[in-house]
Protein: Glucose-6-phosphate 1-dehydrogenase
Organism: Crotalaria pallida
Amino acid sequence: MAALYSTHCRLHPSSLQSSSSSSSPLSFILQRAAFSSSSKRFATAKVSLKSQPDSHQIPLQTHPHDGATVAPVENVTSSKDLKAKLSPVVSLNEPLSEASFEKDENESTVSITVVGASGDLAKKKIFPALFALYYEGCLPKNFTIYGYARSKMTDAELRNMVSKTLTCRIDKRENCSEKMDQFLERCFYHSGQYDSQEHFAALDKKLKEHEGGRISNRLYYLSIPPNIFIDAVKCASLSASSGNGWTRVIVEKPFGRDSESSAALTKSLKQYLAEDQIFRIDHYLGKELVENLSVLRFSNLIFEPLWTRQYIRNVQLIFSEDFGTEGRGGYFDNYGIIRDIMQNHLLQILALFAMETPVSLDAEDIRNEKVKVLRSMRPIQLDDVVIGQYKSHTRGGVTYPAYVDDQTVPKGSLTPTFAAAALFIDNARWDGVPFLMKAGKALHNKRAEIRVQFRHVPGNLYNRNFGTDLDRATNELVIRVQPDEAIYLKINNKVPGLGMRLDRSNLNLHYAARYSTEIPDAYERLLLDAIEGERRLFIRSDELDAAWSLFTPVLNELEEKKIIPEYYPYGSRGPVGAHYLAARYNVRWGDLGLDIDQ
């Protein structure tokens, strides 16, 4: 786990070596430890990969988990050898111009190429996250950032575009403009087609000029539509891979629309990349409160014994946005809220929440436990799903549009903008406990949270003080992922005075009040992990298969039967059907406004 983020950044050895396939156990639950190459057995496969036209053939090996092919790991025989491989973290005080670097062939470089650099995701998230890492001193000494897209643009135009979205950490603003200038000097642009090996070969030539004969490590971030993933991966792999270091590719969701398309995408990616080179990103896994889940559970004795069906009555995973598609309806209509939010963000959080204690904090150990949870889940029944779509609504003299009023949305679309579902895990720990998911657009607030409602106290002496509504007396643990991050536990407490009047109070950990440092954006953490080769927060192919296997049948049934969504007003709490679904399992949604939210 990350240490204090504003003052400590780890630089993972695997980010500076040639390809690494796995890691040794992490030693502390509140720290990310550097891990080295594992001595796990690999079965040699008779396959070779030509990483770029002038490179040597690299024999590949097969990983025991999923049959993926991976490049062999270079042996490091001593700590002295390891230190020689490491590139020091850049000092915030030293000049950073390219000309000032000493060209040492034993040093390594990291070249980060944002494919689709002219898009919104790159401008609003990726470049700002890279700058934040540089500002915090978390990037290696020798790094270069390239934007790649079809748009014609000069280096200066890219820098001007990127500079408009950069911000500095609140506690270090005194160096802000200087650091921005130094960062922008490392940013370059190359225009090319996503399906042109020739254009990627030209990019490769430019990257080599900046790498200057050092060990070259390359990271590609695919900020492009999924229908051109394979073209870009093919061209980057064949024409612009590293010849003497690692090459990694970050792939953005959606990872297909169903089991079949997801499997086809994975198969195509693996024609050009080993599984260990593919980093499937789900940015919710990089959020501070999601990463804190395992710390909260496994390092606090008061929680771990309660994390079971004997004490937990239900678990709720809630995601809501207070805005509609707003011009993105054309993209959204092809996927819908279930594919866009529930099948990935919420299901990944559920797997982390419900998994058994892993053998270690090693990436493979954690992902193994998540897969076990997904494979233990009961098939989702259509009766356990409610879908909705927002309609036009006038409030305060302002008229808000319906989903189908978006000009990019087909008329008469039945795509759900809201969904609620009841899921069950058929294993010894969670048998019979409903996991309720709810996600929607154009609702009354913006929120993402996990709510754990505990069982009623048997034979509670104070039941009469709560009247007939025993749910008011239920303990509840709330993990608010966003906004205004917090963890609070609802308890029953006596109100001071001579009488016996009970009150429901919060034991509250409010992050803004407790910690003075700004919480890093999820993309910062995930980009740093990808550079370091830390795969714990990325999705493995068998995880993806298990997730789609769970949702594909009910998605097909919804579409084949043309189920009409329940319409709800823009800015409301969503369809009434979601409350009937919860009531069927004797559950009340926890976000009904009855909280004493801090």
Summary: Confidence is low (pLDDT under 50) at residues 1-7, 11-102. The two ends are 26 Å apart (CA to CA).
